[in-house]
Amino acid sequence: MNKLFTTIVCLFAVTTMAFSQNGDTDFRNGVAAYENGQYEKAVTSFNSALSAYTAAQNKAKMGDANNYLGLLHQVLNQHAKAAAYFNEAVTQFLQTGNKSGAASALANWGISSFRVKEAEARQQNKKLTLEDIGKIIAFHTKAMQYHEQLKDKVGVGNDLNNISTMYFEGEFYGEATDYLNRALKLHTEINSKGGIAYDLANMARLNMKIGDPASALKLYQRSAGILEEIGDREGLWRTYSFIGTLYESAMKESQILGDDQKAAADRQNAIDALKKSVEQIESMRGNFTNKEFFDSFLKDKNPVYRKLISLLKQAGNNAEAFQYIERSKAKMSNDVLNATKLQVTDKNEQKKLDKIQDLQKQNEELQKQLAEEKAKPADKQDLNKIDNLSKTLTQSQGDFNALMIDLETKYPNIYQVIKVDPIQLSDLQKQLDDDVVLLQYFPADDALYIFMITKDKIEAKSVPVAATQLDSLVNKFRYYINDVTSLMKRGRFDTKMANWKPGGDDRFYERHSKPLRDIMVQLSDYLILPVWDNIKDDKIKNVTIIPAASLYYIPFQCLATETKDGDISFLVEKKAVNYLTAATLMDLVSKKKSKGISNVLVFGNPDGSLPGAEEEAKVIQASYSNAKLYKNLEATKDKAKQLAGTTDVVHFATHGFLSSDEPQKSFLLMAPNAVKNEDDKLTISEILKLPLKDANELIVLSACNTSMGKSATGVELISLSRAFAIAGSPTIVATLWPVDDESTKIIMINFYDGLKKGLTKAEAMRQAQIALIRKGDFHIHPFFWAPYVMIGNPK
C-alpha cells in the first residue's frame, strides 16, 4: 500500500504543555485546518504561529510548528521544503530534550529525503543504490533508537515499516521482507491494529513483486478486515482497489487460458471489491483548497471508477456501468460545490443548511478520531473515549440524516449538492423526447465506451482506442485552435481560405488546414462513426453529448467526415448538438418547461477590454424592446444578483475564467462596486445563490474561456453548469476558448433571431453556426464558430 508512517508529534506532545500566549490561536487554527484538508489555510496559520514562537524563543513549540509545516509540504509533494522544516524541528526538539518529537521529525525527514532522492534518480534515469538507501535509512534508524529508549513499541514498529518501504522502493526486496517481518512481529505483539493492517498490505505488495498473487490477495483481504474493524476509510478504499486489481489480473489470465467460467468469477470478484472501494471514496469529503491536493485526489481515485466501469461493461451490465459513470461525476462536482457556502433566502432554513454542513464536517472528524483510537494497541486504547466517540457519532449522523430528509423535501436541488445521488437510468429515459439520442462517453485504458440512450433502450459500443490516444488528439486539436490566435496576431492567417481542400496557399494548407482536418476526421471516426447508424435517421433531431475527461474540451459539432468531392462536412450540418456535463444534470434542467424568450438582461464589457462584446450587447439589446443593458462600470455583480431572477435570458458578454486545475476558483468577470464593497468576480458559490428559478430560460456566457489544465477532467464545466442549474437555469451557453469579437457578434445575432422565430435553443445555435460556416472564407474555420457549446435543456 506504500504506507509511510508520518508522525504528527503535537497530537501527543502538545497536550502535556500549556500553550504560550503568542501564536497559540494560530497554531490551533492550523491544526484544525490541517485535519480538514484546508492546507493553504493551515500553512498560513502555522507560519504565523512559528513567527510568534520564534519571537518568544519558545523552541519547544517552534519544533511543533516546523514539524507540521513539514507535513503540509509533504502532502503537497514539496519534499525539499518539507525536509528543511523537519531538519529545524529535529534540532529544536533535541534542544528541549523532547526525544519523542525528535524521533517523529526524523522519521518524517527520512520520508521526504527519500522522495527528493527518488525524484533526482528518476530525472537522471538511474536506480537508487544500496548506498543511497542506506543514507536515508539512517534517519529511521536514529528515530528507532529514540523510540527504543522511550520504550515506544508502536514507534519502533512504524520505523521498521518505513525502513522496509525504503528498501522496497529501491527494489531490494530481500531486505524489505526482513524489516517488514520484524515490524509485523512487533505490531502483533502489542496488538497495534493499524500497524498490522498496513504491514499486511505492504507484505501483499512484496508478494506481488516476487510473483505470488495468491498470497498477496490473502494478505490484502486480512488487511481489509482489520481496516474495516477500525474504520480506516483511507486505507480501505486503497486496499479494496488493490484487491480488485488482483482479481482483474486473474481474470485476464483465465481468459488467456480459455477458462471462461473462472474468468467470469474473477471479474465478478473484482467488481465487488471495486464497488467497496467506491463506497469508501464516496463517504469521504473532498476539500479542494489547492491545486496539488485536488490533482492528487483525482489522480488517486478516478482509476478506481474507470476499472469498475470497464469491468461492468465487459460483463454486459451497461445500465450499472452508466450509473457508476454518473456517480464519479457527481462525486467530483459535489466536492467542489460543497466547499462553497451554500445559502437560501429563508433565515431559518439557512440555519438548518449551515447545521448540515457543520454536521458533515463534524462526522468526518469523529470518524477520523475513532479510527485513530481503534488503531492503537489494545493496552493503549482509551475505551471510554471509543465509547463516547461512537455514541456521539451515532447521534451526529442521526441529526444529519434527519436534516437531509427535510432538505430533500424543501430544497431538492441543494440536497443534490450535498449528497452523491445520481439519476437512475429509468428516470433519465422518461425525460428524453422521441427525437433525442443521448451519447455518454467513457474513455478507459484500452477502449472507448459509448453508451447510446433513447427513450426506450440503452446500447453500448466499444471502440478500440486508448484514453491516451484520445487525449493526444484533443491536445493537438487545441494546439491548432490556439495557433489561429497566434497567426492572426502576426497577420499570417489565410483569410481567403474557402474550403478544406488543397489549393491556394499550399504551405498554409499543409502546415495548418490539413493537420486540423485530419484530427477532426479521426476524432469523428472514433466518437461518431461507431454510432452513426443509430443516430443518422431524420427523426433524430438532437444529439445530446455527455463527455468525459479530455473530451469535455472539444466541441463535437466540428467533428467531420470526408465528402465525395474531397471536402469535409461537419456534424453540426447534420444534427443539432447540445451537452450535459453529467446525466444527473437532466434531472435539474428538464423540470422547467420552456415558455419562450421575450426579454433579456445583458451585461457587457465590464472592464473595457472587449469592445466587440460591448457592440454585441448593444445589438442584442436592440433585438428586444424591453431588454436591459448594463455595460462597463454599470455591469456589477450586485445588479446580476438583483435582476437575474426577473428575466428570461441573462447574457454575460464578459470574460469568464474556468480552470480545470482550480475549479473552485472559476469566475465571471464583472465591474467592481466600491460602494457596496463588492469585487469584480462572480464566483461559483455566488452563482449558486442567483434567483433564477422563476423566470430564467437561458444563461449565455459569450466570452468565456475554459482552460485545459493538467487535470483535464471537465470538473470546472461540470461545476459551473450544475451551479447555474441548481440556481434555476435550464440551459447555459458557454465557450471553450477565447472567441473572436466579430464572429461572436454574428453568431449571437443569428442565435437570438432564431429564438425569436420559435426555434429550439439547440436548433437556433445550429443555424447560427451554419450561417457563419456558409459565410465562407476564414469563417469556415472551427476557431470562429465551434467554441459555443449549449449545456442543458436543448428545447
Keywords:
30 helices, 15 strands, eight-stranded mixed β-sheet, single chain, alpha/beta, five-stranded mixed β-sheet, 795 residues
Question: Any overview of this molecule?
Answer:
The protein is of the alpha/beta class and 795 residues long. The protein contains 30 helices and 15 strands. The strands form three sheets. Strands 8, 9, 10, 11, 12, 13, 14 and 15 form an eight-stranded mixed β-sheet that branches. The protein has a five-stranded mixed β-sheet with strand order 3-2-1-4-7. A two-stranded antiparallel ribbon has the order 5-6. It is globular, with a radius of gyration of 29 Å. 49% of the residues are buried.
- Which class do the helix and strand fractions yield? alpha/beta
Oligomer: single chain
Mean pLDDT: 81
Regions with little confidence, pLDDT below 50 for 5+ residues: 8-20, 286-291
Quick one: overall form?
Answer: globular
Count of DSSP E strands? 15
Number of helices: 30
The whole-angstrom Rg is 29 Å
Write the layout of secondary structure elements.
Blueprint: H1 10-13, H2 24-35, H3 39-55, H4 59-75, H5 79-95, H6 99-123, H7 130-149, H8 153-169, H9 173-189, H10 193-209, H11 213-230, H12 233-257, H13 260-282, H14 291-314, H15 318-338, H16 347-374, H17 383-410, H18 412-418, H19 425-430, E1 436-443, E2 448-453, E3 458-463, H20 467-489, H21 506-527, H22 532-535, E4 542-546, E5 560-562, E6 568-570, E7 576-579, H23 584-589, E8 600-604, H24 611-623, E9 628-631, H25 637-643, E10 649-659, E11 667-669, E12 681-683, H26 684-687, E13 698-707, H27 715-727, E14 731-735, H28 741-756, H29 761-774, H30 782-785, E15 788-792
Parallel strand pairs: 1-4, 4-7, 8-9, 8-10, 10-13, 13-14
Antiparallel strand pairs: 1-2, 2-3, 5-6, 10-11, 11-12, 14-15
Helix pairs in contact: 2-3, 3-4, 4-5, 4-6, 5-6, 6-7, 6-8, 7-8, 8-9, 8-10, 9-10, 10-11, 11-12, 12-13, 13-14, 14-15, 15-27, 16-17, 17-18, 20-21, 24-28, 28-29
